[in-house]
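Appendix B, example 12.
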Amino acid sequence: MTSGIQEGPAGRLRKDGAGDDLITIARIARPQGLRGELIADILTDFPERFDALDQLCLRLSTGQLVERRLEWSRPHKDRIVLKLRGADRVEDVEGYRGAAVLIERSQLVPLPPDNYYDFDLVGCQVETRQSALVGRVIGVEHYGAAPLLVVAAPDEREHLIPLAATICVEVDIEARRIVVDPPEGLLD
């Protein structure tokens, strides 16, 4: 993540217009302590990824993308504490409150077959085996045995469709398409 970046007062500022292929893995909650540490809410199922990071890309509340060197990280309860290199006082990190911690898509942990990242499912068109449009995935809920696709239908109704192989018979992330074979009554 170093191409097209220039040094700015708050860190390295991304100037290349990048950001469309970035994935949020944490959100800065607030400074932690007095030594320039930040506490962040973890938004990834793979928190160990912070151990391998030496650079952080942050999307500030202004929308600006900034890169900072990560000095260290450590888990703290259900969160992560991040220490940025050169930030040794609360005042050095106060501007990062609410910032998203991002990684590039190429840094995602590969998933086993038939497993998907929620953000890859959102936006997919859902249709039946007979090519009847059901709607578009607007969210994924996690309750019980299988995640539920929240599908907005063209008639403004919402359907909850289990992401199970017996119902979602084809998931094509590249084509942004999910084919379903719904049991009777699921789409009523």
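Residues 5-107 form a domain with the Elongation Factor Tu (Ef-tu); domain 3 fold (CATH 2.40.30.60). Residues 46 and 132 are 37 Å apart (CA to CA).
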